[in-house]
Every structure is written in structure tokens, then in C-alpha cells.
Amino acid sequence: MDWGMKNRLSQLIQPDGRCFFMPIDHGYFQGPTSKLEKPGETIKPLLPFYDALFVTRGVLRACIDPANTKPIILRVSGGTSMVGKDLANEGLTTSMKDAVRLNAAAVGISIFVGSDYEHQTLLNLSKLVDEGEEYGIPVMAVTAVGKELEKRDARYLALACRIAAELGAKVVKTYWCENFEKVVNGCPVPVVMAGGPKVETAREVFEFVYDGMQKGAIGVNLGRNIWQNEYPVAMIKALRAIVHEKATVEDAVEIFNTR
Q1: Residue-wise pLDDT tens for the chain (259 aa)?
Q2: Structural domain range at position 121
């Protein structure tokens, strides 16, 4: 692995081998998501606590202060929306040259294994990995499922994560599930957990994050369960303690309630 690739990965994955990514890319298919109408304002109080920001180039240029930010993971796939026919029909939306201009530490792309557009999205990933290797920029693959939430089981996610790794992704973002160790053990590159839809209680988030970390994930890529919470700073502090300080669920609950 070349120096530039290693350097960018070291910005994302901290010295303890763990990471905390903050996604605010939801608008690329959802539009002005609740609590994310003004992305720059949403992340201001959260800036000290996450390790990298997952964002589109449009929001990055329009809303994020270049003098005061963390490493950037650039969302580079899209082309569909919630009102369209199929969320899986994605293409590449951003060139690797633009990622270089934006000083991205990594790029992120969704794959839709098992969908009508499986072939297309997997080739998108392969092409992006080729370009990333040329420029020294790591690729994070996101195992997306569109509206088909029932696909979030260990057998399916293990399949999707392994394929992403086989095609050259340096990190894979996927959903937590029961028997999550089967997903991690079958994936030869680091796995980070997505948040998925906002859940009812903070404890539920702490429980799945703690379980996933115990079963081999290196970190999280959580957005809505943080910035849609009534107390986002307390939420991110508690989650960061699980990821970077090996806090338990009870520790996290206490941090959340205290702060």
C-alpha cells in the first residue's frame, strides 16, 4: 500500500484501531432531511467528537468551513431519489479528480447486492477502486438495501460485505444484525456499523453499537440516531465512549443522562 493511501487511512482509523464517522449525506436521495436542513449548523456542536465526516461535494462546498473540519469521506454515488422508481439504480456522481481537489481522505459508494442493479453498482465500485488506487484514495463501500429492510440479516450482509472487500474496498459500512460476528468474520477488511432508521431510545443504539464492537466492528458511521436525537451532543459523547473508551451500555446510559 502506497504512502498516500496509508496516510489517508490513518486519518480515518485512529491509533486505537477504531473510528467514529459522522454521515450527513442523506440529502442526496432524501432531500432536506429532518434536523439536517442546515447541515453546517447541525454538525457544529458535534465537530469535536467524530473522526471523519461523510458528505456530498455539494454540501461540503456550500456548508462546511474548510478551516474547521475533520477528514472528509466524500459520497460519490447517487442519481436516484425517494420519489423515483428504484433507489438501487445508482451511478458515479463525482470524479476522483474532484475528490482530490476537495482533499478527501476517502470516497464512499453504495452497492445494492441482490437488486436489479447489482451488476451496475458492483462495477461502479470496481471502477472507483481502480481510480482510488491510481490517486491513493481509499474507497468505503456501503452495503445499501434500499427499501428492502428485511435483507438486513447476517447471511445477506456477510455476502455483500465479502463481495465489497473482494472488489477492493478498504472499509465496508454495513448494518448491525443478529449474529453480527458472521458478517465481520467473513470480511477481510475493516467493518463499520451504519445506524439505519432512527430508533425509539438511546439505550437501543448503545446496545447494538456495543454488541457490534464486541463482535469485531472497528467503529460506527451513525447520523440520524445522533443528530435527530433531542440531545445530540450527549448522544455522541456516549457513543464515542463505547467506540474509543470501551465503555459498556450502562456507562453510555450514564454519560447520556448526565450530559
Answers
A1: 899 999 999 999 999 999 999 999 999 999 999 999 999 999 999 999 999 999 999 999 999 999 988 999 999 999 999 899 999 999 999 999 999 999 999 999 999 999 999 999 999 999 999 999 999 999 999 999 866 656 689 999 999 999 999 999 999 999 999 999 999 999 999 999 998 666 789 999 999 999 999 999 999 999 999 999 999 999 999 999 999 999 999 999 999 999 8
A2: 3-196
- Taken in order 7, 9, 13, 15, the sign of the CA dihedral is negative
Cα distance between residue 68 and residue 23, in whole Å: 17
173 is catalytic: yes
Number of structural domains (the chain) is: 1
Q: How many whole angstroms separate alpha carbon 167 and alpha carbon 233? A: 37
Strand partners, 108: 75, 140
Position 203 in a domain:
no
Residue 75 lies in a domain: yes
Catalytic: which of 70, 151, 170, 173?
173
CATH number at residue 86: 3.20.20.70
